[in-house]
Amino acid sequence: MISSFSIILENDVLYCSDEKKYNAFEILLFVEKLLHSINPRNTWRLKKIGLKHKKQSKERVIVEHVVTKAGQNLFFCSIGNFSVGSLESFKMLKEFSKQVSVQYNDLDRLKFSSEEPTFNNVIELITDYLKDKYLDPLEEEKIYEKTIKNGQNSILYAGISAQGLPIISQLFDISLLSNLNRDKTNENIELFSSDLSAKLATISMNTQIRAKTRIKEIHIEDTEDVSENNGKKIILFGNMNGYSIDFIATGNFYKVKAIFKQFKSKMALDSAFREEFSGDLRPYRHLKHYLDEVIKNFD
Predict the structure, then answer these.
(1) Greatest Cα pair distance in the chain
(2) Which of 39, 62, 92, 224 has the least CB density, counted as fewest CB within 10 Å?
(3) 114-117 long-range CB contacts below 8 Å, 24 or more apart?
(4) Per-position DSSP letters for 204-234, written without gaps between them
(5) Three-class SS of 48-70
(6) Could you say which DSSP state residue 152 is in?
(7) Residue 145: which pLDDT band, with cuts at 50, 70 and 90?
(8) C-alpha 65 chain-centroid distance
(9) How do the residues of the chain divide into helix, strand and coil, expressed in percent and rounded to 5?
């Protein structure tokens, strides 16, 4: 159930309880760069990352995302076969962060604390305690699909890339540009979409290369969003014959995922995806109609 724990501060993995899982935790470094690039106000909090291995086994990295007094992003993480709706796993991580805070009350200096010879031993005592405490609650936990009453499901972005290169993309919610203090011109929208597509492709490729697995989903919460969906943002990744399909939406995870599967199934029938990407974008221009159609599936 619980495979490994980790502590990550900005671009540094300060602790990893199992070196075999180190590369999986490295994925957070690329996700952190994505969050910083599209949310410089630092109001988004990473919650979980879904992974899927070739043998159909699934894992999730769950995250307690803390912003320190100095504005640094600090991630307390655990990887295992946690269910997407697990509450016990987040109780465990919250306790993980509290226990570390008790031992090292100045989290802004955690980087320096991690260089002390006793650091790994102290954190290992904490993680061993958490494993013993939460093993049974996690195994016995009953998961229920949550629905958001009167909530709205909205698409923010959709795109297709190959070999790390954007093929076609569309930004449905141009308010994301407000986070960057950019004018909402067609040029800025196109630049933002291309940059977002490239960063998502980088996350997907590095997950395959470094962790030898595929990234399937990223869950984020916006602390400034007080709408019915509680600021829940979902990034979904799909792979189809070497092509990457990326989807960013808000709302209920299960409903958004169902729409994404339909979107992917329709595109899978298109002959454009039967050929290997050659770098020529012309054969893919017609794919835009899939992006135009997908918004009709949302509330």
Answers:
(1) 59
(2) 224
(3) 114/7, 114/9, 114/12, 114/14, 114/15
(4) HHHHHHHHSSEEEEEEEEETT--STTTTEEE
(5) EEEEECCCCCEEEEEEEEEECCC
(6) -
(7) low
(8) 12
(9) 45, 25, 30
CB contact at 8 A, 128 and 135: no
Percent of the chain residues past pLDDT 90, beyond the cut? 50
Determine the Cα–Cα distance for residues 217 and 168; give it in Å rounded to an integer.
Answer: 20
* 94-126 per-position pLDDT tens digit: 999 999 999 998 999 999 999 999 999 999 999
The residue to which tokens 């013993």 are assigned: 132
Closest to 244 in 3D by CA, of 182, 199, 286: 199
At 137, the amino acid letter reads: P
CB 153 within 8 A of CB 248: no
Say how far apart CA 82 and CA 104 lie, in whole Å. Answer: 28
Whether 250 contacts 226, CB under 8 Å: no
Residue 151, pLDDT > 70, answer no
Buried (b) or exposed (e) across 17-51, using 16+ Cβ within 10 A? Answer: beeebebbbbbbbbbbebbeebbeeeebbbbbbbb
